[in-house]
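ingest -> validate -> predict -> emit
validate: passed (alphabet ok, no gaps, 62 aa)
predict: started
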Amino acid sequence: MTRQKKSKECPQCHGNKKIPGTCVCDSEWRGTQDGDDWNECQCEPEQPCPTCQGTGVVEVDP
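emit:
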């Protein structure tokens, strides 16, 4: 008889499959210029969750 593994929601991404990127805004630096406006924020793109590899669930032993 084989054991079946149970799945539960990933504790790191809470089932969302991706981790949102973070943005840091600081008026001390000038990032990029968009027309006459300066974008003072540096943002990272969202990443697949490293804990569940983008599935949203992790397997646990019963």
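The beta strands are 6-9, 18-19, 23-25, 32-34, 37-39, 41-43, 47-48, 57-60.
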